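User: Can you fold this complex?
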Amino acid sequence: MDYFEYRNGELYAENVPVADIAAKVGTPLYVYSRRTLQEHYEKIARAFAPLDPMICYSVKSNSNTALLKVLADLGAGFDIVSGGELFRVIRAGGDAGTCFYAGVGKTDAEIRFAIERGIYMFNVESEAEFETIDRLAAEMGRSPRCALRINPDIDPNTHHYTSTGKKESKFGVDVVRGEEFFRRYRNARAAKLVGIHLHIGSPIPTAQPYVEAIGKALSLIDRLKAGGIPVEVLNIGGGYAAWYESAQSVMIEDYAEAIVPLLKDRPLKIVMEPGRFISGNSGILVAEVQYTKTGGDRKFVIVNSGMHHLIRPPLYGSWHFVWPVTPGEEMTPPDRSRQVSLAGLVTCDVVGPICESGDFLGQDRQLPPVSRGDLLAVFTAGAYGMVMASNYNSQPRPAEVLVEHDQFRVIRQRETYEDLVRGEG
Ligand SMILES: Cc1ncc(COP(=O)(O)O)c(C=O)c1O
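Assistant: Here's the predicted assembly.
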């Protein structure tokens, strides 16, 4: 699952006690494991090897340049959704020529920047966007490749905020319109329409929605081919689940077993855009208990982090395992389950300092008794954690640390009060 594990009653990141990192760097703090990041990239590459896919890590899930560098060095490409993400990839030493650029609202400046830097392909979401890319490319004397994002009208059974492939979503165009799109723009002035892109949502807990979406894309590709329009690239998107809890048994091999046979004999360049599968288990958030209190029948553990650092629980109803960093051997959890069978646990909500009732990291949790100064770890927080952090209530954002074997280094400094007001006034 990952390299955050309890040894002799205390949590380690690879071979470093998390409490030691917190003592040196302070809290709140994101801690990442390089080995977990690398192994997840390698696992997905291995599982889908029969397709020889381009694996383009989804930068939006965690865009710290130190992590991007690790992945670039491993040979990953990148899925980007803004000029800022392209800038980060380049800054990290990544190759713009491995980038797929998606997103419904690309500006002229972003499109020009991407063309100038020679990205691999635009994932185009509408007719108006394609025409804009074509016009700008013609002005620049360039011929960028494009894939059309098809919206296959499939319910991926995930939170409606992260379901992106249904008919009524803002992403892509439906299959019928997709066919017209290719006929209309096959001979565009400058931009080359050569691919199809799918991304139906995330996390998608089973392979079935992929199977259905890919089936629809392949039928479209066959119809286009019959009409003399070849499609060279099929990008099947991201959404492969991270391990948020132990009972969750979905493995990357389960997805591969269902998807690989559909594509193995097709003369298509296959692209994948995994984000959370690679970065999710690679990080934890470490927070420090400030106070405990009761309110009616509820018990609260109040920590120095919350929705401003990890917004997934209130935003998507996401569940992250939370446990003390140094619980002692008798309180070491057997796994990361919703129900932990240990004696003496206290049912409580783990909440932050923000002035919102929705500011929680976990609700109705059974935890060992904790007191002021104790550290709590929030697991599987490497994806959509720090990237969605804010300065709400003028709270500085946490530091980030990367652990490698028995060493660690700060890969993003903790923000200061000066950082909060930089550029103001
Ligand atoms: C187009 C696209 N590709 C890939 C991803 C990555 O999703 P995940 O991190 O769940 O793999 C997203 C996430 O929103 C996306 O919008």
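The chain has two domains: 4-32+280-421, 34-278. The CA atoms of residues 310 and 363 lie 14 Å apart.
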